[in-house]
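In the laboratory, one determines a bound structure by crystallizing the protein with its ligand and collecting diffraction data. In a computational setting the workflow is compressed into a single prediction: the sequence and the ligand go in, and a structural description comes out. We illustrate the idea with iron/sulfur cluster.
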Amino acid sequence: MTHDEARTIITNRKRELGDKLIILGHHYQNDDILEYADYVGDSLELARKASRIERAESIVFCGVYFMAETAAILAPGRAVYIPDPAAGCPLADMAPPAEVLAAWDAITQVTRSVVPITYVNSTAELKAFCGRNEGAVCTSGNARKILAWALEKAGKIFFMPDRNLGRNTARSLGIPDGEIVEWDPGAAGMDRDAIAKARVILWKGWCPVHFPEFSAEDVSAIRTRFPGIKVIVHPETDPATVAASDLSGSTAMILEYLASLGEGQKVAVGTEAHMVYRAARANRFRIDVVPLKEVYCEDMAKITLEKLAQTLSRLESGQGRVEVAPDIAEHAMKALDAMLRI
Ligand code: SF4
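The predicted complex, in structure-token form:
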């Protein structure tokens, strides 16, 4: 199928299905795909959108698998599709449920006063685990609020799977590094004393797009190259990178920050390059936006026009449909609900 044929199929199917179809697109998708998205957003915005869909019978999620799973949980009764089910997330895969359960057993043998929180970039099973244990989901946009809620509730958090988002958020809440420990699934466990003393226990996972790709040295190099440049990075970068930057924030916060800058300002953005180049084009007459480094998410890039066209042309067959087992969906919903309520 050529690009042009794919475009024709997508346009015709969108016209034919009208309100019965919604295409959601994540900011890290390429422009070709987002041209056909009815809504573009980050994880939090798209989760909220999915939970409020009224008319559409089918949702096609242009993003990675955990996002489509989240939409399927938040929009029961709708059929959710992903153009390529192999578009996964290495970060989500770093927290296999059996290993998380083993860690949870060890932690709860020391104390029951602990709340599990999972970043939305995780499997439905991990979200369900949090729901079963009175925890919540968070996104990079609301992590600070959710962690503050959990700390007030129990005084201790078990945060998964992104160690950098966890540490950056804990630090922003004033928690010293001495009260943050990392649970390394590859190690033999953690001693009881360390568990008892910690306020935040982080799962040792990371997003390979943001870490170790963006470093404090990259920030310093770009400041030398362009004196006066501002630097904003995603909180999935490591704490040293965040400390070297002017600001860190979710995708939506990065876009807000760019909108707030005065005319003529130059700014480097440390996140996925599709989004950075799109923001650069959108702001080109006002400010100069450059990538801190050009890094792409290979999984997001698995969604192509051809795969979107194929998905739309065989919606009725159920191929590419994302389904979550009812028991997992029920408990994951509790954790997502907690996030949307807090
Ligand atoms: S950017 Fe990172 S967290 Fe997001 S989907 Fe890609 S690998 Fe996963």
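Residues 326-341 form the longest helix (16 residues). Keep in mind that any predicted model is a hypothesis to be tested, not a measurement.
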